[in-house]
């Protein structure tokens, strides 16, 4: 590589980001490879990469990813179907929202995973229990962001439409929905990442469930191959990144006008 | 920090407080009446849950601060692991975050690592920790640290990076030594963001405590839930659920008090002329 090309890479942020990954990867490889730690106790990074590549053709792992994503998709559909309408309603009836706020604040931070044994007893079905748990965790970001979005509606635009004789429903369609939608979408993006994490957590602790969490728990007690355990975590991280990237990209495309407006407002003196 | 944005003037009015109390009373009362009337073994009335919690954990001798043997055997270890994991993550997260936030080269090197690290679902690493540390406190603390460090780290980076340039320039002009620049200018400037991260991670610590105890423990609140599950002890399940709800509220309230103390100068009028 020529000097200028090398400088361009070393001074670009992407180049430095890649360098950071390589440095940590290499340092771990050297430190572990020096033989102070036995490979069985902690595998070399290259071994983990090999295991991660091997998982792609591992039928049980691929099925478990499909199981997790299926629960994730069902839970997200239910979450959006409940949280967006309730959020719109609470945002519009601000008195009701303010009266309910302490209840929401009580329910929201509750660790959903704790509910697994009880929900399992009531629902009597592993997959449905998992969906209930994930919905419980994912519903709050969507609900709260939607309420916030409805509140951010431009009062002037609302009053203008009203004075032109538009009815409440058509005002809602023309003003309230468009201004609440970007906020709801942000809530959905946060919920999508959270739902994936909670699904893996539920599968890990809920005996009898399928999915990534169950796969890695079974590997831990079965083969006990540390490289595979870490490789599963690496794949989970990549799936998490992909979920976030897809939703962030969709947000940017769907609400370009909103982001343009937000930037323009910020740049005003 | 209430997650729901407050409107100007909201919260102080007596009728709002009354409405909130009425809603809470209606929910709890409705639950009590409904559960009593239904007599369904899965849905216990709140009064029964509360008295069960009291007898199980808080009915002990005064010399033990009214904690029962069950509470000292399970509650205290859980809380100890949770708080030590959170404290270690807080110190490490703030130190790393401030370094990354103030050093652009380090920020570029670390950015992709941080993005990837926070995307890994912490539960997916619990089996790794279980394998390395076996069942016990080190495994649980490690899982809690990994689970809760990311909000502290990301918020510390953000806070340290965006300290008001006027302050850092002034500190430079007055030739403040680096150590004082850090403790007098950068840390206070980043404090609001750092506190926001610490609060998020405190709530997460409770979740990670439960997940790690579910995955492998010999005592603790999560372990009591496992016992309840294997013996179909539904009252105990509700008691653990109630306890975690109360713990979440108490921890959040304690943190709010501490945060108000630490950030008191922020609300004080800054005009000095």
Tell me what you see in this structure.
The complex is a heterodimer of chains A (269) and B (273). Chain A is an all-alpha fold and 269 residues long. Chain A folds into two domains: 1-37; 42-267, MetI-like (MetI-like fold). Chain A has twelve helices and no strands. Chain A has helices spanning 3-11, 13-33, 45-55, 59-92, 94-107, 116-123, 126-151, 155-163, 168-205, 212-221, 226-254, 256-267. The mean pLDDT of chain A is 85. Chain B has helices at residues 14-38, 46-57, 69-102, 104-119, 122-133, 137-161, 165-173, 178-215, 221-230, 234-262, 264-267. Chain B has one domain (47-260): MetI-like fold. Chain B is 78% helix and 0% strand. Chain B is mainly α. Chain B has eleven helices and no strands. In chain B, helix 6 runs antiparallel to helix 8 and helix 8 (178-215) packs parallel to helix 9. The two termini of chain B are 31 Å apart.
Which helices and strands, and how do they pair?
The complex is a heterodimer of chains A (269) and B (273).
Chain A: H1 3-11, H2 13-33, H3 45-55, H4 59-92, H5 94-107, H6 116-123, H7 126-151, H8 155-163, H9 168-205, H10 212-221, H11 226-254, H12 256-267
Helix pairs in contact in A: 1-2, 3-11, 4-7, 4-9, 4-10, 6-7, 7-9, 8-9, 9-10, 9-11, 10-11
Chain B: H1 14-38, H2 46-57, H3 69-102, H4 104-119, H5 122-133, H6 137-161, H7 165-173, H8 178-215, H9 221-230, H10 234-262, H11 264-267
* Uncertain parts of chain A: none
What letter string, H or E per element, gives the SSE order of chain A?
Answer: HHHHHHHHHHHH
Q: What would you call the structural class of chain B?
A: mainly alpha
- The total strand number of chain B stands at 0
CATH superfamily heading of chain B: MetI-like
Name the CATH homologous superfamily of the largest domain in chain A: MetI-like
The whole-angstrom Rg of chain A is 24 Å
Helix content of chain A: over 70%
Overall pLDDT level of chain A: 85
Report the top-level CATH class of chain B.
Mainly Alpha
CATH architecture of chain B: Orthogonal Bundle
* Approximate strand percentage of chain B: under 5%
**CATH fold-level label of the largest domain in chain A:** MetI-like fold
Number of helices of chain B: 11
Low-confidence stretches of chain B: 5-11
Distance between the termini of chain A: 46 Å
CATH structural architecture of the largest domain in chain A? Orthogonal Bundle
What is CATH's topology name of chain B? MetI-like fold
């Amino acid at each position: 590589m020529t000097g200028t090309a090398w400088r361009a890479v070393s001074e670009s942020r992407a180049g430095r980001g890649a360098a950071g990954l390589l440095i940590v990867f290499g340092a771990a490889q050297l430190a572990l490879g020096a033989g102070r730690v036995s490979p069985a106790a902690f595998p070399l990074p290259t071994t983990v990469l090999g295991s991660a590549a091997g998982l792609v053709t591992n039928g049980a792992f691929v099925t478990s990813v499909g199981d997790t994503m299926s629960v994730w998709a069902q839970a997200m559909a239910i979450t959006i179907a409940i949280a967006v309408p309730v959020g719109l309603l609470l945002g519009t009836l601000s008195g009701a929202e303010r009266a309910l706020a302490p209840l929401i604040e009580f329910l929201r931070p509750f660790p959903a995973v704790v509910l697994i044994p009880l929900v399992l007893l009531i629902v009597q079905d592993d997959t449905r229990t998992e969906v209930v748990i994930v919905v419980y965790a994912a519903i709050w970001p969507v609900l709260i962001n939607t309420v916030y979005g409805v509140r951010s509606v431009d009062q002037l635009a609302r009053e203008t439409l009203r004075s032109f004789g538009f009815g409440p429903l058509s005002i809602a369609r023309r003003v309230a929905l468009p201004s609440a939608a970007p906020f709801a979408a942000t809530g959905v993006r946060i919920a999508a990442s959270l739902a994936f994490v909670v699904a893996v957590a539920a599968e890990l602790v809920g005996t009898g469930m399928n999915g990534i969490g169950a796969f890695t728990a079974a590997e831990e007690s079965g083969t006990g191959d540390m490289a595979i355990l870490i490789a599963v975590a690496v794949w989970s991280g990549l799936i998490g990144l992909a979920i976030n990237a897809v939703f962030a990209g969709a947000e940017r495309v769907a609400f370009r006008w909103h982001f343009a407006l937000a930037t323009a407002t910020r740049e005003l003196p | 920090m209430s997650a729901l944005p407050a409107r100007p003037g909201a919260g102080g009015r007596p009728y709002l407080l009354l409405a909130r109390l009425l809603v809470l009373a209606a929910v709890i009362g409705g639950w009590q009446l409904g559960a009593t009337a239904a007599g369904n073994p899965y849905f216990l009335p709140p009064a029964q849950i509360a008295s069960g919690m009291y007898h199980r954990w808080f009915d002990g001798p005064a010399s033990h601060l009214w904690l029962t043997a069950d509470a000292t055997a399970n509650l205290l270890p859980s809380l100890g692991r949770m708080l030590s994991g959170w404290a270690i993550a807080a110190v490490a997260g703030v130190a790393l975050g401030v370094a990354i936030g103030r050093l652009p080269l380090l920020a570029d090197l670390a950015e992709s690592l941080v993005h990837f690290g926070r995307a890994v679902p912490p539960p997916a690493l619990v089996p790794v920790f279980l394998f390395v540390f076996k069942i016990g406190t080190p495994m649980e603390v490690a899982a809690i640290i990994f689970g809760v460090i990311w909000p502290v780290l990301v918020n510390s980076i953000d806070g340290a990076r965006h300290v008001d340039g006027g302050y850092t320039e002034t500190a430079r002009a007055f030739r403040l030594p680096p150590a004082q620049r850090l403790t007098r200018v950068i840390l206070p400037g980043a404090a609001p963001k750092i506190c926001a991260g610490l609060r998020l991670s405190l709530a997460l610590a409770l979740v990670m405590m439960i997940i790690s105890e579910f995955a492998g423990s010999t005592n603790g609140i999560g372990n009591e839930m496992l016992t309840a599950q294997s013996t179909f002890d539904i009252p105990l399940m509700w008691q653990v659920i109630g306890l975690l709800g109360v713990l979440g509220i108490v921890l959040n309230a304690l943190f709010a008090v501490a945060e108000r103390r630490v950030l008191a100068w922020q609300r004080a009028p800054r005009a000095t002329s």
